């Protein structure tokens, strides 16, 4: 991976729907050369996929919670991710140090919807129990890209 690849990745992170011309302009390449580089980054696994970022407000999902997950046994991060990615209310999941095994950021329409989603998390084979805190207000919300 070189500086050109890194520039293509930065451009894709800003906008996954960037055209090859836009990628090329950002990286100093022609559109066909940018396409070849992007294809190579995808084939190598450096770029694992493309996704849409949904505004939770547009879905009216305004209830947020952070959920600590405590696992049964010792599931691998891959196993845990496979179970959690089936739950759309889980918008972020990380393995963490400390007593909990993982931390989830969850969004839902309301408390009832959140409770149902947390119950689905608890039904996953590798989950023993959860502990939740509900977000009352956001103090800082900085963009990451």
Core attributes:
145 residues; alpha+beta; Arc Repressor Mutant, subunit A; Alpha-Beta Plaits; 2 domains; four-stranded antiparallel β-sheet; 5 helices; 37% helix; 21% strand
Outline the structure in words.
It is a single chain. By secondary structure, this protein is an alpha+beta fold. The chain folds into two domains: 3-44, Arc Repressor Mutant, subunit A (Orthogonal Bundle), CATH 1.10.10; 63-134, Lrp/AsnC effector binding domain/regulation of amino acid metabolism (RAM) domain (Alpha-Beta Plaits), CATH 3.30.70.920. Helix content is 37%, strand content 21%. A four-stranded antiparallel sheet has the order 2-3-1-4, with helices on one face. The relative contact order is 0.14. The mean pLDDT is 92.
- How many structurally independent domains? 2
Percent in helix? 25-40%
DSSP strand content = 15-25%
Give the helix/strand class.
alpha+beta
Write down the CATH topology of the largest domain: Alpha-Beta Plaits
CATH class of the largest domain: Alpha Beta
Low-confidence stretches: none
- The CATH architecture category of the largest domain equals 2-Layer Sandwich
Strand order of the biggest β-sheet: 2-3-1-4
Describe the main β-sheet briefly: 4 strands, antiparallel
Give Rg in angstroms.
19 Å
What is the approximate shape?
elongated
Integer average pLDDT: 92
Q: Summarize the helix and strand pattern as letters.
A: HHHEHEEHE
- Assigned CATH superfamily of the largest domain: Lrp/AsnC effector binding domain/regulation of amino acid metabolism (RAM) domain
Distance between the termini: 19 Å
Q: Count the strands?
A: 4
Counting DSSP H or I runs of 4 or more residues, the number of helices is 5
């Amino acid at each position: 991976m070189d500086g050109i690849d890194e520039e293509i990745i930065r451009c894709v992170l800003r906008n996954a729907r960037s055209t090859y011309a836009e990628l090329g302009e950002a990286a100093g390449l022609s559109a066909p050369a940018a396409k070849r580089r992007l294809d190579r980054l995808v084939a190598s696994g450096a770029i694992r996929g493309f996704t849409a970022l949904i505004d939770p407000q547009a879905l009216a999902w305004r209830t947020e919670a952070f959920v600590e997950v405590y696992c049964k046994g010792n599931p691998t991060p891959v196993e845990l991710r496979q179970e959690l990615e089936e739950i759309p209310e889980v918008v972020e999941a990380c393995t963490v140090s400390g007593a909990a095994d993982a931390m989830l950021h969850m969004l839902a329409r309301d408390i009832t919807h959140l409770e149902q989603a947390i119950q689905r998390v608890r039904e996953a084979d590798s989950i023993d129990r959860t502990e939740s805190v509900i977000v009352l207000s956001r103090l800082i919300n900085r963009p990451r890209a």
